[in-house]
Design brief:
Elements lengths: L5 H5 L7 H15 L8 H17 L2 H10 L21 H12 L1 H7 L21 E7 L1 H6 L1 E12 L14 E3 L8 E8 L2 E8 L8 E3 L11 E12 L8 E4 L15 E7 L6 E3 L2 E8 L1 H6 L1 E7 L2 E7 L8 E4 L15 E7 L7 H12 L14 H8 L2
Parallel strand pairs: 1-9, 11-15
Antiparallel strand pairs: 2-7, 3-6, 4-5, 8-9, 10-11, 12-13, 14-15
Helix pairs in contact: 2-3, 5-6
Length: 389
């Protein structure tokens, strides 16, 4: 079943502000929240659907990518599939990642009696790491066929001494005395409607349920150190210059066990020596001599994946466009494939010898060398327009 449009799911438009998108998500999530619809699988799916839409539209980079490429930008093997950020969220992911949209008392205290909900049922730990951006240059062949790149990235990585908890040793981690390890504090307020109970994040341990009495020396209690990691990046075939890919969890490591940020990869195309890209098509300017145009010839032309031999018929005019089917770029996550367009240019020498001048003057006097365009012949503009249909 095809996915619904993310803007349609939240009831917003592409021009909606971040605040409007947040309010719209809150409204939809409140409507289909599992605690308001116990046992309703359809409501649960709509709740997850809204969370997935908000994950994309609330992130500037992901939103820009979605606006440009749609759902295909988050398919398997591309940003959003497998190791890339996107769908496949479970309920724990949603409560852990988007609880701040509703406030601590909304996901925690109002629904479900204040039970702490986060990934795997555990209390939230640390602070999420920041996203990391890199630029990746690809040549035409790599773009056409897809490629795996092993990239060394300097970033914050997990501290191996303390395994990310920021403590000197296991005895340096103690249960928080304020929340008794729950990561939350409850407050009961008497109102004219009766007693109202709210649950907020513990201010002492910041929701972690424990405190560190002695910090790890190498990371100074952060649970991370600055280092280098080699990341394997699978680039799908057909990407374009300026396209952004996002690998979930491959950015900077979080503090004290917090989740890692994302790695944002911006694609840059290396210019080809002979070929030029136009969408899925690739073009090449072929120059031939006047005799070759008159008598015809066979020439080799460069393509993305090697060379190809083409026949130039006798009497070929300058501006003629030949098409090599399927020699262009593939569509990202699609079945379409572009062509290679060969633009014929007849080379005119800028200087000629006396002997050549005599021969050319004789040809100029011949009726056969006077332009006689056939009525209905297409202009150069029409040929170019037709080639790019």
């Amino acid at each position: 079943m095809s996915k619904r449009d993310f803007y349609e799911i939240l009831g917003v438009s592409k021009s909606s502000s971040a605040d409007e998108i947040k309010k719209a998500y809150r409204k939809v999530a409140m409507q289909f929240h599992p605690d308001r619809n116990p046992g309703d699988k359809a409501a649960e799916e709509k709740f997850k659907e809204a969370a997935e839409a908000y994950e994309i539209l609330s992130d500037t980079d992901k939103k820009a990518k979605y606006d440009r490429f749609g759902h295909q930008a988050f398919g398997p093997g591309t940003p959003g599939g497998g190791g890339y950020g996107g769908g496949g969220m479970d309920m724990n992911d949603i409560f852990s990642q988007f609880g701040d949209v509703f406030g601590d008392d909304m996901f925690g205290g109002f629904f479900g009696g204040g039970q702490s909900r986060s990934r795997g049922g555990a209390k939230a730990r640390g602070q999420r790491g920041s996203n990391l951006r890199i630029k990746l240059k690809l040549n035409f062949e790599e773009i056409a066929n897809g490629v795996n790149k092993q990239v060394k990235v300097k970033k914050h990585v997990l501290c191996t001494t303390c395994a990310g908890n920021g403590a000197k040793d296991s005895s340096s981690i103690q249960t928080c005395g304020t929340c008794k390890g729950s990561g939350q504090v409850r407050k009961v307020t008497n109102t004219f409607l009766g007693q109202m109970q709210t649950v907020n994040t513990c201010p002492t341990c910041n929701g972690e349920g424990s405190t560190v009495t002695a910090k790890c020396t190498p990371c100074k209690g952060e649970g991370r150190v600055y280092g280098e990691e080699t990341i394997s990046i699978d680039i799908p075939a057909g990407v374009q210059d300026g396209m952004q890919l996002s690998m979930s969890g491959k950015g900077n490591a979080g503090e004290r066990g917090g989740s890692s940020g994302d790695l944002i990869i911006m694609i840059e195309e290396e210019q080809h020596e002979f070929l030029h890209r136009d969408g899925l098509n690739v073009s090449f300017d072929l120059y031939i001599t006047i005799p070759d145009a008159i008598f015809g010839t066979s020439v080799e032309v460069p393509t993305i994946d090697g060379r190809a031999k083409i026949k130039i018929p006798a009497g070929t005019q300058s501006g003629k466009i030949f098409r090599l089917k399927g020699k262009g770029f593939p569509e990202v996550q699609g079945y379409a494939k572009g062509d290679q367009l060969i633009h014929v240019n007849i080379w005119t020498p800028q200087e000629v010898s006396e002997e050549e001048k005599i021969a050319l003057n004789k040809m100029q006097e011949s009726e056969n060398f006077k332009p006689k365009p056939i009525k209905g012949d297409k202009s150069f503009y029409d040929k170019v327009k037709e080639a790019f249909k």
